[in-house]
Amino acid sequence: MPQADRSTDLQQTLAERIMVLDGAMGTTIRSYGLHEADARGERFAANDKDLLNNGDILSLTRPDVIGDVHKRFYEAGADICETNTFSATGIAQSEFFVMDPRERGGRKDPDFYQGILESAFLNDLAWELNVESARLCRKWADAVGSDSGRRRYVAGAIGPLTVSLSNSPDADDHGFRVVTFDQVLAAYKHQIRALMEGGCDILMIETIFDSLNAKAAAVAAQEVFAETGSSLPLILSAAVGRGGETMISAQKVEAFWNAFAHVKPLAIGLNCSLGPDLLRPHLEELAACACTCISCYPNAGLPNPLAPTGFDLGPQQMHDFMAGLARDGLLNLAGGCCGNTPEHVAAIARAVAGIAPRQIPVVE
After folding, report:
1. Over the chain, what HEC string results?
2. Domain range spanning residue 95?
3. Domain count of the fold of the chain
4. CA spacing 20 to 30 A to 158: which of 22, 46, 238, 297?
5. Is the whole model's pTM more than 0.85, yes or no?
6. Does 364 map to a domain?
7. Does residue 362 lie in a domain region?
């Protein structure tokens, strides 16, 4: 189906009901009991650094696992699944493939990251990770959508990076940044082009803890749209602390909306960091000011190493909290972040079924 038709259908569905997002890729991957050898495969067997914590690489070395995760989330009731590309930029992937200069008394700085951006290996890897991850998610979106008779969508996941544009890591030089805005912009443009090549329906700039990083991602999307002559809907989602501020840039949710309203996102929302109970007041504040759809995919409570998923809340508890948010008119898209398995998403889907979506305020 042409992208324009999928986008129109997406808008119509959002007007009719609360749509369901998927759950935690990392949490679900851990249930497969993978080992370092699984992450490396034959292709990366000789890599100097461990790769087991590089979940994105599994799209290449264990696509069967990543495909099964997508399949399970779609079958659980997710309308939208995110690609396995949270860290699929050259900048983020360099953590797993390039020696850290700090280990030899150096430092990470713009010169270091310029070398990363010019690395043919990392550029090719980032492109392949995004294209193949998008195609893998697309395969299961179309398969489950065809079987169920309900269209499913693919959201290209664009994560926050391992560097900050807002803060200096040097206590003696507050103006120092390890990377420049233009370097982050270039990394995101490369990722976005690849996600579009792979067949995404949506771009999701998510888990925003540094609003300036997210600004670079949003600018990257606008530039790619202008350069290619095609565009995708954008969803932006921030991770906030207990006070409702983005983690590093300390931007409250109303300021977060004001900073990104000009890109006319399909939705803006909150994810990660907190459970649905602690996110509620900040979601209420965002819903009161945002003139677009609201998304919310919180963690399954707070971290708990004794819980099966590593987080406090089970599926029924997530059901009850998310049903309350839906009944109070706060949701257009609902899902789960860390600790949320396919069973959690199935419960969230049941929780919001039949409840009218939040009414978007009309700007006069």
Report:
1. CCHHHHHHHHHHHHHHCCEEECCCHHHHHHCCCCCHHHHHCCCCCCCCCCCCCCHHHHHHHCHHHHHHHHHHHHHHCCCEEECCCCCCCHHHHHHHHCCCHHHHCCCCCHHHHHHHHCCHHHHHHHHHHHHHHHHHHHHHHHHHHHHHCCCCEEEEEECCCCCCCCCCCCCCCCCCCCCCHHHHHHHHHHHHHHHHHHCCCEEEEEEECCHHHHHHHHHHHHHHHHHHCCCCCEEEEECECCCCEECCCCCEHHHHHHHHHHHCCCEEEEECCCCHHHHHHHHHHHHHHCCCEEEEECCCCCECCCCCCCECCCHHHHHHHHHHHHHCCCCCEECCCCCCCHHHHHHHHHHHCCCCCCCCCCCC
2. 3-352
3. 1
4. 46
5. yes
6. no
7. no
